[in-house]
Amino acid sequence: MDENLLDITEYVRAVRNARVEGRLLVAVGGFGGPRGHDRVGVLDLRVEGSTVLVDAWLESSAVPVLVDALLSEGLEVREGGWDTMYATGHHFAWTSDGRGPFEVWSREGRVCTIVEGMFRSSNTPVPADAIAAVEPFVGGDWIERGVRLRTSDGTLVTVVSDEDQAPALDPTYDGLNLMADVGWTHALARALAEGLGGRPIVDCT
Fold first, then answer.
1. For 156, what's the count of Cα atoms within 13 Å in the CB-facing half-sphere?
2. Do residue 76 and residue 24 come from a single domain?
3. Between these two residues, 65 and 176, which has the higher pLDDT value?
């Protein structure tokens, strides 16, 4: 991704020109971009998946202004994060605003949510009060990265995970690379822990 900088007006214009079919998520992430900016995407959340309507760098202080501007357009808007780096596309995006149910979305659809005291995903629903910790994790070979839940009886429930072959293919890949690449797992873990009412985070990276 080049350093495509937009202002609020350009973001709103792009959303107006898109055919919004669902709710919007203003997702903040990125790594290594222009100073004082975040990589901010506006995603259209629909049953069949999340579609990126806008993806650019925006001044960090302008993010709340963007949300207000989109709300003034009569749109339903959530705030959250996504797993982008400087030049990589997203796999996952999530809410973190507390204005509705916590949700994680992939390009294919909603991955999980927390509603009525239950964590719900494609796995068996887990009562929120049975969740002891939220764990960002990395596999022993550094290839798999993700976030999981640990229940009070020790059961592990994967929320999301992704694989990156760089550690196996690049002999110069080191701990600093890994730390940057897994930053999204910590951001997601914080949002999920908050969505669960303040569960502890156990860093397994």
1. 11
2. yes
3. 65
